[in-house]
Automatic annotation (TrEMBL):
Keywords: Signal. The keyword Hydrolase does not apply. This is Glycosyl hydrolase family 43. It comes from Breznakibacter xylanolyticus. SUPFAM superfamilies: Arabinanase/levansucrase/invertase (SSF75005). Residues 1-21 form the signal peptide.
Length: 352
């Protein structure tokens, strides 16, 4: 009798495991989307911020202009910069952030201005990024990934900035690409594939694009449209500005398109792109750090060749309702349910 019960229990367990294994993650498409989530940071706190929008034009910070996650709770350097977010095909949300606090000495987090000697390793030197994962945009796990520890041969790394993410459909893996330099040399963007748990890089970082010889570039953002990959970068060739390179491949073969993609007359960086829900329109955002107070600039395109300048936050069609001086954004589409849950979590009186 006991053996029979054990066999029945075993069969039930195996059946449950099999059912779980066969359960497919619901595929979410653009038709399911109803709102936008913007992630950004601020220099004064080095924390992570969320802002919601129903129409992709007016954004409201979910925590009334305060961080949703404090940088000193997740980063080695007690601060984060340059947040990026994506939705994975498994239904999870993935985020990557620069592990760097540029005011750490002033706040007593370290005795020197930088983590290592500024002359040898440069301004804002760091060696790590913060990786985050969430099923619902509310509950997050996090890991600090030190590039030099993952690959000891990269011990001379001078910076690991602006990590961004994209899912490589051919490999079935998340590809992280980020700005890296060695010592105090010229910076450029490298890519690596992430492990299944999103806690570590599986492959040695490789250069994704060789820019103009002798010039550096930073802050890449890749958007796939059809069979083309559009990579926007911050070029330092003649002042910081946004340029575009295009390829048929996710991490090779990028060809530079001459000219600026932004509509600014002053330095800007941190380009990122989001698609308007249900429209054949994409919005290019960039951080105009040379103006005071700094702000975001916007341009819109339907073909990635011609761009319509939309101005700045609160100086054009793009608006903020309860926050200012944001830095380095990324935007994703989210569902009505996700937006409502996020608003409820932060007691934001915003209907979706």
């Amino acid at each position: 009798m006991i053996k029979l019960k054990f066999k029945i229990l075993t069969l039930l367990m195996l059946s449950a495991i099999s059912a779980t294994a066969q359960k497919k993650v619901k595929t979410i498409t653009e038709k399911d989307m109803a709102a936008y989530l913007m992630v950004y940071f601020k220099d004064d706190t080095h924390g992570l911020y969320f802002a919601l929008s129903k129409d992709g034009y007016s954004f409201t910070d979910v925590n009334n202009g305060n961080p949703v996650i404090a940088g000193d709770t997740i980063a080695e350097q007690k601060g984060i910069r340059d947040p990026y977010i994506m939705r994975g095909p498994d239904g999870m949300f993935y985020a990557a952030l620069t592990d760097l606090h540029i005011y750490a000495q002033k706040l007593g987090y370290r005795t020197d201005q930088w983590e290592r000697d500024g002359k040898e390793y440069g301004w804002g030197n760091n060696r790590g990024v913060v990786l985050m994962k969430s099923p619902d945009l509310i509950h997050w796990s996090h890991t600090v990934l030190r590039v030099d520890k993952a690959f000891p041969e990269l011990a001379n790394i001078g910076c690991a900035w602006a990590p961004a993410l994209i899912f490589d459909e051919a490999k079935g893996k998340i590809m992280m690409y980020f700005t890296m330099r060695f010592g105090n040399g010229k910076a450029k963007v490298y890519y690596s594939y992430m492990n299944k748990d999103f806690t570590q890089m599986e492959t040695m970082p490789k250069s994704i694009f060789e820019y103009i010889e002798g010039q550096e570039y930073i802050d890449a953002d890749i958007t796939k449209v059809g069979n083309k990959y559009h990579m926007f970068i911050c070029s330092h060739n003649g002042g910081a500005h946004v340029e575009q390179a295009v390829s048929d491949s996710i991490n090779t073969g990028y060809q530079l398109i001459p000219g600026r993609s932004d509509g600014e007359k002053v330095d800007c960086e941190a380009p990122t792109v989001f698609k308007r829900i249900g429209e054949n329109k994409w919005v290019l955002i960039y951080d105009i750090y040379r103006i005071n107070p700094h702000n975001f600039g916007f341009s819109e395109t339907t073909d990635f060749e011609n761009f319509t300048y939309l101005g700045h936050f609160n100086k054009g069609v793009m608006k903020t309702t309860n926050f200012s001086i944001p830095k380095h954004p990324a935007v994703i589409q989210i569902t009505k349910k996700e937006a409502k849950h996020l608003a409820a979590k932060w007691h934001l009186k915003m209907k979706f």
